[in-house]
Predict the 3D structure of the following.
Amino acid sequence: MTDTELHLRKFQKELSAGTVSLVLLSVLGHSSRPLYGYQIAKQLQQTQDALLSSKQSALYPVLRNLHAAGLLDSLVEPSVDGPPRRYYTITAMGREVLRSWTDTWSSARDSVDAILEGKFQ
Amino acid sequence: MSTAPPTTIAAYLDQLREALKGADPALIQDALYDAEEHLRSELAENRGISEADLLARMATTYGVPEEVAEIYRDKEIQITRALRTPPRKPAQSMLGSFFGVIADPRAYASLFYMALSLATGIFYFTFVAVGLSLSAGLAILIIGIPVALLFLGLVRVLSLVEGRIVEVMLGERMPRRPAYANAANGFWARIGNLITDPYTWTTMLYFIMMLPLGIIYFTVAVTGLSVFAAFVAAPFVRMVDGSNFSGLFIDGIEVTSNWNFLGDAWLPLIFATGVVGLFVMLHVARGVGYLHGQIAKVLLVRSTAGNL
């Protein structure tokens, strides 16, 4: 692995640490029905984006903790293929948090873009 | 990667368990559960593909066991930092740390747990005593087998429930998913595991212990709170009652006579004792909460070595 790749990996890891909660909350915010971990992972895979579709195992701990923080509701349903599946839906508080996170994200993204384009020189 | 790529889901989970060795047992249980749910969902979506091919493909999407283990360790640290309320900085002075307990939600939650433990203790004890004796008594009849299995299954469920109570109230990390049982093993093998697994028996031991512990916790919590609250209230009662207070009677027997036999001069001291006592109670509750969390962790969570 070259140095550039190593730096890229590290950057991706840090960037995804900050955004994965926002992305998961947003996926569930847009969904009209409860989703389980695997379905969410598949949706993110469709983006083809290296950052979002990377290691799906990382989603589960985040989902669980969003649930623990009261942003998601969950229910367990038995499935024929394996262990019972845990379905998640967004809570009212989750929606509120999602709105504020979205605002923060938008303004941060715009500022970062502006800086990357050299507007503040 | 040092180990050969897994060719079955069971082997994958074993490798994951191996890779997580030394991590919090509760975390391991959750990680195994998540992985199994995901892998089996993928398998169900892609019928006709062998488990080995599927796992080879999943190595890039879900991750190989070592990566997954790394991710879970990382996430646990990050998330604990980001989403949980940070622990309060310990107060510098002795006095500060003694009275600071009043702002610690953990102390109140533990106090509530102590009061609740009598009810849960009675329930758990009765459940295990009845379940065990029914299973043993009916063992000679054919219906003894389903009764025993139902009982053992319910023990597992209750263990998870108690784990959730302990985590929420006492703050000890407990499993959020049931213990992983290898679905590839046959029905009878799984039943055999249920009986030979020491964790089944330590869980029952915990449930039995919950009755005496619950009685002690409840008594300490209720007695401590009411005695010290009465101490705090004493001067105010004295102010209200003046000298005309004729006493409180239950069934014609006065229960309040001579309650102020020490004389009014002692009232400030009694009040101060009450206030200090209530703070001591919060410390006691926090201590009991921590100790009980440790007991629950040892008896209710399987250590990593067990391989089902």
